[in-house]
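Worked Example 4.2. Read the sequence first, then its structure tokens.
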Amino acid sequence: MNLLFDFIPFQDAGGIGGAAGFTKAVLDEIVRRKNDKVQLFAIYDGSVPVGRLYDYRTLAEQYHITLLNISQKPISEMIAEHHIDVVFISVGQFYGRYNLTGITCKTIMFIHDIFDIEAADNRIELAIHDANIESNWQWTKRLVNVLSGRWNRQRTKNYRNIMSLYAAQNTIPYTVSEYTAAALRYYFPEINSIRVCYSPARKVTMEEHIHDTKLRQLIEQGSPYLLLLAANRRFKNAHVLTKVFKRLQSEYPELHLLTLKYGKSIGSHHIDIPLLSESDLQYAYIHAKALVFASFFEGFGYPPIEALRYGTQVVASNTTSIPEILGNAGIYFSPFYPAGLYQALKKVLSTDCTCSTAMQERYTAVSQRQEEDLRKLVNELLTYNGCLYIQ
């Protein structure tokens, strides 16, 4: 059996965060369970740089995977040339620019979210602006793109290409939450059925020491801090937290804010780090007073579940897939209302009491489903013509 795997999520700009973590977890499980009759190939794009979290070239060498360059030939030609039996596309949103025609073999394809389609529909772009990291000129250009319909036309074209394969008879369509499945059915009724597979847990080996100097100093000084990840992405809604943080400082002068990739500091108690190793990120979770997950959109959302693993309180938006994944273990607020986030954070900062039982129960429930869903997915990936190719 020849399996063509998706390495594009390992590359920039997708080569960090949830997409890369999801893809790596699936790859590791396939390698662990497949038998010696399975030959692995992988799609990469030679015109795109190597990602910062995983080097796909190292992974290919480690797992004896043959790399195939999608910038040189379409997938259909790869399938014919290498007698591919099963194609796995880990993150379908990254494939709008590629030729997906002529793929007739068994295909398993994930779409993790369609926030760009939803954003175009509810015009939320008109309400999002962070003057700390986006100039007025950048904001004006973005508004022109939204109001002129240019972005909407681009997204429609991209998804027309993606959905032609996602809804094809030879494709088994997957997504990562019941919310995203509902959103896909709402906007693309031509899809007959969608399987939901929770994003698998990312395996991390914690090192003995913290390598990032800023993080190590913050933890050693013992000051309470709030944690926000992927702060450079508009839909992660860093703006509402930076605004509320400034208000909270008058009441909690020792409070700090730790962000990843925000790109700018808003004060002496704000620490911004461009990138943390997976091990250092775990330390950031462990010592945080709370993880703030202020997103407008999420397909699944790794950080809340990863924070719950360590008993760290999660203050989260009450939108899209977040309540589905976090359940009753989070403190919720509307991402449109700073006062709502202020109220939620006051609850965390004013008491040492946390919902420890609810957090542990929710983490256990989700992690068990992640494990079971991953097992079923890998079984599907390693099944061809009714034969399951596992050890």
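Now turn to a second chain, presented in exactly the same format:
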Amino acid sequence: MRALVISGGGSKGAFAGGVAQYLMEVEKREYDIFVGTSTGSLLIPQLALNKIDKLHEIYTNVNQHAIFSLNPFVVRKKEGREYVSINFLTSILQFIKRKRTFGESKSLRRTIKKNFSVQDFNEIRESGKEVVVTVSNLSKNMVEYKSIKDFTYAEFCDWIWISCNYIPFMSLVKKDGFEYGDGGLGCVVPIREAIKRGATEVDAIVLESEKMERNKVLGKNPFSLMLSIYGFVLDQIEYHDISEGVLAAKHRGVQLNLYYTPTRLTENSLVFNKKLMTKWWQQGFSYAEEKFAASPEQPIKATRN
């Protein structure tokens, strides 16, 4: 069985869409299992339906209003460069209301239901394909994987939404008596889960550059510094996930193909810029095309140590 795994990465999901488009439309790859974290969870239902044109439309037209019902960020331009900082007014209002997050993402829940219908849900169920999203159970301090086979339409839409809720900047969700947040808080690249579910070949799209060495500009206030620290932590989780996935693949004789972004696309993937995301989608398609042209039989081997 062949699996497609897509990591977390917010707006960088547009790049993953471009890679997936090449794999499915040009290389004619068909997948039995789709596993995603965060933005990967948004991508995989449409990919399981083979609705790539619709996915492209979504990811190249989305904006902050489609994600945040209360946006915790402010984007400022200085000397031709964009800088992202916390919206202090929004944060103060959240504190006054005794909320535990800086922003809210109820708009994303509506966006998911708008673009993923009951008919879409039933079509995937009837196809026999397995679509799995990653969530973090913060009450139990553990990662959970939610398969489309085990839930109703409304429940699965909730799990997709929960998988994307990057705490503390997006909604903290209470469900079934537990509090949940973004799956990336525990597993950014769920390669091992795809292998555990029976995959014999895995294409994993990692929304980060392979060589993560870089000089990072740290935040100049406690809130923006928090963003920088979160980015560091997620990088370490991602590195662990990939290493674990490579070991699991070698142990079980699974072919693992890793697709990274060629460069670091953005410092804040929670800012959704239509122009940039359109560019990233095309970059993803071109990147995959170049990799296959360079080595058509084995585009990218799992060689990360």
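Notes for the reader: Residues 66 and 176 are 26 Å apart (CA to CA). Strands lie at 2-6, 33-37, 73-78, 81-86, 130-137, 142-147, 173-175, 178-182, 201-209, 255-261.
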